[in-house]
């Protein structure tokens, strides 16, 4: 069994663009995709931010997951 995750905990986290040009045809759908991209980027930035507190992390995670759930 290989442990590809043991050296860098964020290694499996690839950038996601949420560019669904053929699928997201309405402005509202494009806004949701843009919000998803921004909230994911912010959440990943908080993982390496030394000044981040648990409340900031919880708020960022809640925002990201609420957008994913709809």
Automatic annotation (TrEMBL):
Q: Name the domain of life this protein comes from.
A: Eukaryota
Query: Per its UniProt record, what InterPro entries does this chain match?
Result: BRO1_sf, BROX
Coiled-coil residues: none
Q: What is this protein called?
A: BROX protein
């Amino acid at each position: 069994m290989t442990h590809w995750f043991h050296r860098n905990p964020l290694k499996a986290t690839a950038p996601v663009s949420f560019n669904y040009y053929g699928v997201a045809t309405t402005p509202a759908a494009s806004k949701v995709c843009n919000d998803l991209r921004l909230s994911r980027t912010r959440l990943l930035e908080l993982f390496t931010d030394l000044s981040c507190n648990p409340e900031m992390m919880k708020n960022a995670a809640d925002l990201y997951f609420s957008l994913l759930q709809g």
